[in-house]
Amino acid sequence: MPSIGNISFENPLLLGPMAGVTDSAFRTICRQEGAAGSYTEMVSAKALLYQDKKSRQLLFISPEEHPCGVQIFGSEPEVCAQAAQLALEISGADFVDINMGCPMPKITGNGEGSALMRNISQAEKLIRAVRQAVQVPLTVKFRKGYEADEDTCVEFGRMAQACGVDAVCVHGRTRQQMYAGKSDLDAVLRVKEALSIPVIASGDMFTPEDAQRALQGGADFVMVARGAQGDPQVFRRMKRALEGLPPEKEPTLSEKIALMDKHIALMCQRKGESRAMSEARKHILWYLKGVRGAKPFKLEFSHVNTLAEFRALCQKMEQQLG
Ligand SMILES: Cc1cc2nc3c(=O)[nH]c(=O)nc-3n(C[C@H](O)[C@H](O)[C@H](O)COP(=O)(O)O)c2cc1C
Q1: 173 Cα nearest atom in ligand 1
Q2: What are the tens digits of pLDDT across the range 44-55?
Q3: Pair 223, 99: CB distance under 8 Å
Q4: Residue 68: exposed, middle, or buried by beta-carbon count in 10 A (0-12, 13-18, 19+)?
Q5: 183 CA to centre of own chain
Q6: Which domains does the chain have, with CATH numbers?
Q7: Chain segment 243-271, per-residue pLDDT in tens
Q8: Atom 2 of ligand 1 has which residue's CA nearest to it?
Q9: Where are the beta strands (DSSP E) in the chain?
């Protein structure tokens, strides 16, 4: 069984952190479908120390999600160290991950996220401060590099390892690429070759073949992010392939609807119906991607306000398309 520090995972498939997507309900569903572990959405270290209510809400982890990591981002070592302790206290997370890969200008503009790849001495101070502050396993997530032509991930990974982290996650795109273009698996695997700690491969993990390629290349874990949007069953397909089992039949429309219903109902239970339903719309549209004949229903789904409305519309769609 693959492990990070003292945490063993059932398989090498992790659900990656996605702000605005991987809340507790979604993580729970992905875990049930075969993900061995997950992360919270990223939480600002500074906001957490200022007692920001929204940041604290992001830290809710339900008992069935473990192992789950809490992901923090920031630029100041002391703030991040204190925030990591507080985040662990609030969430009961199993490990801490530091985000050094976020490419969003509002984050990098503050010297946070992937901006730390450009300021390796600050990144080192920050990792060391968090390492000293927490006893649980610590991981760092970063990218191939910063600018388009930069490939600094091996150097960055070596620095992180020397600071005592238990694993690193590398997204094979540069900050400049954001989420476009192809992710460079070779760069991720070069980090693996250079380090002795586990390496989690991130970037373009959509199919069982993608996962197998990364694992056969030496990665210890595979992180699935966009591939799980509207398709938590991606984990089931990947897991079967890794176990050498033949692929299952494509899920029917009724099965798809049943999974979506379970997910949206859990969101309502955990966040309250009003907030959950406004956040659920994007998930519903992802679930319906590629469903033949669903187009006319998408507009209606994008206006649903209650769980009852959602369920009535699902029933109508199933009757017409099923
Ligand atoms: C909507 C969205 C939100 C994301 N939020 C985070 C985040 O909060 N923390 C993080 O480390 N990465 C975040 N990521 C990056 C993913 O975890 C992952 O590394 C990246 O999408 C590459 O994987 P993929 O090509 O399989 O999607 C986010 C990605 C997306 C698409």
Answers
A1: 22
A2: 999 999 999 999
A3: no
A4: buried
A5: 16
A6: 3-242 (3.20.20.70), 253-321 (1.10.1200)
A7: 999 999 999 999 999 999 999 999 999 99
A8: 18
A9: 3-4, 7-8, 13-15, 38-39, 43-44, 68-73, 95-100, 138-145, 167-174, 199-202, 221-224
